[in-house]
Design goal:
CATH architecture of the largest domain: Orthogonal Bundle
Largest sheet: 5 strands, antiparallel
CATH class of the largest domain: Mainly Alpha
Oligomer: single chain
Low-confidence stretches: 175-184
Number of domains: 2
CATH topology of the largest domain: Transferase(Phosphotransferase), domain 1
Distance between the termini: 65 Å
Protein name: Serine/threonine protein kinase
Number of helices: 7
InterPro entries: Kinase-like_dom_sf, Prot_kinase_dom, Ser/Thr_kinase_AS
Strand order of the largest sheet: 1-2-3-5-4
Order of helices and strands: EEEHEEEHHEEHHHH
Radius of gyration: 19 Å
Number of strands: 8
Structural class: alpha+beta
Keywords: ATP-binding, Kinase, Nucleotide-binding, Serine/threonine-protein kinase, Transferase
Mean pLDDT: 88
Shape: globular
Organism: Myxococcus llanfairpwllgwyngyllgogerychwyrndrobwllllantysiliogogogochensis
GO molecular function, one term: protein serine/threonine kinase activity
């Protein structure tokens, strides 16, 4: 039950609509109806994330949600989702409030039924790799990069969300079972080392981002080298119509190599390579 009076930093809200349910959490759009929190002004709309009913009593899941909140509290970047508040009406249920985005990049691909312009993919890729370089510097890996977790603001800016599920992405995970019944779900984006062991370093995120950017550029999932999870992309993703396109194909192949030490090693390097490809797109072939 809600308190009769708000404490500093708290607010009250109404759920407007359900936005989606993932492996661990559910997200709802909310509208602030009363607030003593300057980050959550009355009348504004945000998104609330909490554990879904299946996992709400699971200690490990609750711990991961708490770690996700701690990570978002520490990070501040234009291409990482912004945390606005945590359990802001003082109840016992753990949840957090974040900016409300327009749609996911998965929704964008599904709705337009075509690939994104390569210039857009390179711009987004440069921005997202810069955000991930920042996160890695702060000590955070994502481990679950895919179009579903790259959201778009109303201005079209891509932001990375869902920093909690990645610890559950591996071949024996109970969390992923509902996500993979169609064959190529979350595991399609997963590096081989993470799939086999549940662990990866920065190059695990490099792999997943590479697979995601390839999907943006093709408009659909690009076939992997083999049926094995984490086998990478060896074919050209886009036609070699320019030096920029050729360089992009090379970048994706190096980002998604199945052997971690043979990938591009850092997100800083990924950003540089993608910016180079973008500059080549502006030059005549």
């Amino acid at each position: 039950m809600l308190q009769t009076s708000l404490q500093s930093g708290q607010c009250r809200f109404r759920v407007v609509r359900h936005l989606g349910t993932g492996g661990l959490g559910r997200v709802d759009e909310i509208r602030i109806i009363e607030s003593l929190n300057p980050s959550l002004p009355q009348g504004a709309r945000f998104a609330r994330k909490q554990l879904n009913e299946q996992w709400a009593r699971e200690p490990t899941a609750k711990k991961r949600l708490a770690r996700e909140i701690a990570a978002l509290r520490q990070m501040e970047h234009p291409n990482i989702i912004t945390l606005r508040g945590v359990s802001v009406f003082g109840g016992k249920d753990l949840f957090y409030v974040m900016d409300l985005c327009h749609q996911s990049s998965r929704d964008l691909l599904r709705n337009q039924r075509s690939s994104l312009p390569l210039r857009t993919v390179l711009k987004w890729g440069g921005d997202l790799s810069a955000a991930l370089a920042y996160a890695h510097e702060e000590g955070f890996l994502h481990r679950d990069l895919k179009p579903d977790n790259i959201l778009l603001t109303r201005h079209g800016t891509p932001v990375i969300a869902d920093w909690g599920l990645g610890y559950f992405v591996h071949q024996t995970s109970r969390v992923l079972q509902p996500l993979t019944v169609a064959g190529m779900g979350t595991e399609y984006y997963c590096s081989r080392e993470q799939w086999l062991t549940g662990k990866c370093g920065e190059t695990g995120d490099v792999y997943s981002l590479g697979i995601t950017l390839a999907e943006f550029a093709r408009g659909e999932q690009v076939p992997l080298a083999t049926e094995a999870v984490g086998s990478g992309i060896t074919d050209d993703v886009v036609p070699v119509s320019s030096r920029g396109a050729a360089h992009f194909n090379s970048i994706i192949k190096r980002m998604t190599h199945p052997v971690p030490r043979r990938r591009i090693q850092t997100m800083e390097e990924v950003e540089v390579e993608l910016r180079v490809a973008a500059s080549l797109m502006r030059m005549r072939a």
